[in-house]
Design brief:
about 110 residues, alpha+beta, three-stranded antiparallel sheet, elongated
């Protein structure tokens, strides 16, 4: 059995995307997102998402987190592959626990 575990945000409305970008711009919350993603990448997750090619309006191309500011959608994903249904369910549970902090970070910023 195989699947892809994914967590992040997609298709954010302009107001929500502005809140996400403001949080990325902020040193405390932006660094927190950097740390979350670094931990996931170190654990075998891949950073995915769509974005703009240049700096979003109002942000410098030299911003320390410009790569994150460019995202219009952002997610971490990893493949889940197991031989049995029980092992698959256990691996999915582990994947969801690992990506939950990223989902929580995004959810706080995307709420109205």
């Amino acid at each position: 059995t195989e699947a892809i575990a994914v967590g992040g945000y997609y298709a954010a409305q302009s107001e929500a995307l502005a809140r996400v970008r403001a949080a990325i711009d902020d040193d405390a919350t932006g660094s927190q997102l950097d740390d979350l993603l670094a931990g996931l990448l170190a654990g075998g997750w891949l950073k995915t998402g769509d974005g703009v090619k240049t700096a979003p309006r109002g942000y410098s191309r030299q911003h320390p987190r410009i790569d994150l500011l460019r995202h219009t959608s952002l997610a971490a994903e990893r493949e889940v592959v197991s031989e049995s249904v029980e092992a698959f369910a256990a691996e999915v549970a582990v994947a969801w626990r690992e990506v939950a902090p990223l989902i929580d970070w995004c959810a706080v910023r995307l709420r109205d």
